[in-house]
Amino acid sequence: MSITNTFTLDVDFKKSNYMNEPVVTQNDEVTFILNIYDDDERYDLSNVTTFTLASVRPDKTSVMTLGTKTATNQVTFNLGTTELEVVGRVKAAIQLYDAEGRVSTLPFSFKVLKDPVIDYVPSTNEQTLIELVLGEAPTILANAEKATTDINDLNTTVTAQETTRDNNENSRKNAESVRQSNENNRELAENERQSTFDNQMTSINTATTNATTQANYAKEQAEYAKSQGNFVQDVLDAGWYPIRVETFTSNAGQTLFTLNGTYVTGQNRLQVIIGGVRQYYPLNFTETSNKSFTVSEPLVAGLDVEVIYQ
């Protein structure tokens, strides 16, 4: 008979995790309960969608076990016999995933001991007991045959009663079948009417959605054009003559941009627009030199970067 072993472990994202290595035995039922913290604070697992325990056995075979959230910051893994099949140290890692990918990995290990029942050989006393049981086998078989006969007689009586009940039930089912046929015909007519109505409503909703999308797009384009006009007017009003305009396409993680020309630093002579949105000095960018500037946050690839300077 297998033994259930439950291990409760506390792990922290921000701190080194020191714990006694769990020791289990082959064929036991093993449960790991993990309490997860972030710098001593309970870590809220509400946004985590999947919990896995990746185990690498001593024979290098990898086994994946799914976990279940059992409290706000707690997840439970129930191990099967596959994870405990090979004796030795098992390297494990708890992996937390949200809708966009893996959140974090928490490694630990546990040790598997050999099941002493495997390759078991009975002792001399135990062999004597087995021989005694085999000697009483004829009496046991005779009693079993009598019990079987009694059960068969009882089954005959029960079968007759069951046949009568079945006949009555069949009559009831026939009447129910007629009623159900009439009900099915009514439901078919209702489903056809509902399907026609649903198709009409879908067409109306699709047309409404398309019209709304087009109107919103037109509004966004108008607002963008207006913002661009205001920005150019601001540049002209500031007396920037002559001015130079350069455009870039950002690379992933890029922060530094180098210009072909120069500008006067420290006099607000540099304006930056990223993806159609005006950036402000020094909140969004800094003047690195009179030929370059640095944005505050790394950019994603493919953004349009427009620079106006004097």
Question: What would you note in describing this structure?
Answer:
The protein is an alpha+beta fold and 310 residues long. It has 3 domains: 110 residues, Immunoglobulin-like (Sandwich); 88 residues, no CATH class; 82 residues, no CATH class. 36% of the residues lie in helices and 33% in strands. Strands 1, 3, 4, 7 and 8 form a 5-stranded mixed beta sheet that branches. It is flat, with a radius of gyration of 38 Å. It starts with a strand and ends with a strand. The model has no long low-confidence stretch (mean pLDDT 86).
Any chance you could write out the topology, listing elements then pairs?
Layout: E1 4-12, E2 23-25, E3 29-38, E4 41-42, E5 50-56, E6 62-66, E7 68-71, E8 74-79, E9 88-98, E10 101-113, H1 124-135, H2 137-237, E11 244-249, E12 256-258, E13 270-274, E14 277-279, E15 285-289, E16 292-295, E17 304-309
Parallel strand pairs: 1-3, 2-10
Antiparallel strand pairs: 3-4, 3-8, 5-6, 5-9, 7-8, 9-10, 11-17, 12-16, 13-14, 13-17, 15-16
Can you give me a brief rundown of this structure?
This protein is an alpha+beta fold. 36% of the residues lie in helices and 33% in strands.
- CATH fold naming of the largest domain: Immunoglobulin-like
CATH architecture of the largest domain: Sandwich
Distance between the termini: 84 Å
Q: What is the highest CATH level, the class of the largest domain?
A: Mainly Beta
The mean pLDDT is 86
Q: Work out the helicity level.
A: 25-40%
Uncertain ranges: none
C-alpha Rg (nearest Å): 38 Å
Number of strands: 17
The multimeric state of the shown protein is single chain
**Total helical elements:** 2
Largest sheet data: 5 strands, mixed
The share of residues in extended strands comes to 25-35%
Question: What is the count of distinct domains?
Answer: 3
- Structural class, please? alpha+beta
